[in-house]
Design goal:
The complex is a heterodimer of chains A (171) and B (169). Chain A is built from no helices and twelve strands. Chain A is mainly β and 171 residues long. In chain A, the strands form two sheets. An eight-stranded antiparallel beta sheet of chain A has the order 1-12-3-8-9-10-5-6, with no helix packed on it. Chain A has a four-stranded antiparallel beta sheet with strand order 2-11-4-7, with no helix packed on it. In chain B, 0% of the residues lie in helices and 50% in strands. In chain B, the strands form two sheets. Chain B has an eight-stranded antiparallel beta sheet with strand order 1-12-3-8-9-10-5-6, with no helix packed on it. Chain B has a four-stranded antiparallel beta sheet with strand order 2-11-4-7, with no helix packed on it. The N and C termini of chain B lie close together (10 Å). The mean pLDDT of chain B is 93. Classes of the chains: A mainly beta (171), B mainly beta (169).
């Protein structure tokens, strides 16, 4: 039986860094999934998610989230990234109480814009922000061949961050 | 190489069960994912479901949840206390099951264990829920067992409620 859920690349950071890059992504799959358990050098960090090294105003995202006390929504408008772990944020807890799962659909088609959904959670003690669901778009019809998870706090992605990129194949 | 493997399946038999349990979980995967199809025999529209690891009933858990009935949005922290993680609702409809997905990264690592949960039910009743949740088990041990519990007093998961545990490499 052919593989339908396949690990493409995994990275564990050993020093503080600007972020994590998955490059030279093949077009062999239908969809992509990223699982990341980050740690930050500073409090309240988040990721800029970008594709194909595009840092121009070709993205937007919206989300719902809770901090356990209220329900909130956000719409970014056109911007230069998709924010993930954006309102829940990730911090310096060495026990890594943070995670994010990003699904990127139909990433290699060359005719339509690309859409993602992201589920992020930060549940540490005492820092205890909450959970969020994000929908994002990249307004470009190119196949995605590179994904960057950029630390919003420059060069402050911490050592011990683990990120894995999976490919999902249709039947 | 395939990297998602079924580890165990539990399907409730003719006698309803108050828990659904996975034991002796091997440590040779990176992450775990649970896909569940759940009902309750409480007689109500639904019953809340909670999650524990390694039979730990201490106050070592925290959770946050955001859920809606289609009419009202609710939020909460530690709704069922800090000795378990709120994990969505089991359907009370006699013929429809709720669906629940639980993802646990780095379950065998030496950090606290984070859990992300999505759950939903649509029973064509006045009360049905869509649920987003997250939790943490403040323990650095590898997860070797997982237990779902139904919170309604005297209720259980009736026949054909099912959960499958997958390992991801």
């Amino acid at each position: 039986m052919p593989a339908t859920y396949e690990l493409i690349q995994t990275t564990t950071t050993t020093t503080s860094s600007a972020g994590i890059t998955f490059d030279n992504i093949s077009s062999n799959f239908t969809d992509l999934r990223i699982i990341v358990t980050p740690i930050s050098v500073v409090a309240s960090n988040y990721f800029y998610l970008r594709f194909n090294n595009d840092a121009f105003s070709n993205y937007s995202f919206n989300e719902i989230y809770t901090n356990g006390s209220g329900a909130f929504g956000y719409q970014s408008g056109v911007t230069t990234f998709i924010g993930v772990l954006f309102y829940t944020t990730f911090g310096t807890d060495s026990n890594n109480g943070y995670m994010c799962a990003i699904d990127i659909f139909d990433y290699s088609n060359a005719t339509s814009y690309k859409n993602i959904i992201s589920r992020a959670s930060a549940v540490t003690d005492p820092n205890y922000p909450g959970t969020e669901l994000t929908a994002g778009g990249w307004f470009n019809t190119a196949a995605i061949t590179r994904i960057d998870l950029v630390s919003a706090s420059t060069n402050n992605l911490g050592s011990g961050t683990v990120a894995s990129l999976y490919g999902i194949k249709a039947a | 190489m395939a990297s998602m493997y079924p580890i165990q399946n539990v399907t409730v038999g003719s006698t309803a069960s108050t828990t659904i349990d996975f034991t002796s979980i091997p440590n040779n995967y990176t992450d775990l994912m649970l896909l569940c199809s759940l009902r309750t025999n409480s007689g109500g529209a639904s019953s809340s479901v909670t999650l524990r690891f390694n039979s730990d009933t201490g106050t070592n858990y925290k959770d946050k949840s955001l859920y809606g009935s289609g009419v009202v949005v609710f939020v909460g922290s530690d709704i069922y206390g800090t000795d378990e993680i709120y994990s969505g609702e089991a359907s009370g409809d006699t013929s429809l099951f709720s669906v629940t997905k639980v993802y646990i990264p780095n379950y065998a690592g030496n950090k606290y264990k984070v859990v992300q949960i999505e759950s939903g039910q649509e029973d064509n009743q006045t009360t049905a829920y869509t649920f987003l949740g997250c939790g943490v088990w403040k323990n650095t041990a590898a997860i070797t067992s997982i237990s779902f519990r139904i919170t309604s007093a005297g209720a259980g998961f009736p026949q054909y409620s099912t959960a499958t545990l997958y390992g991801i490499k």
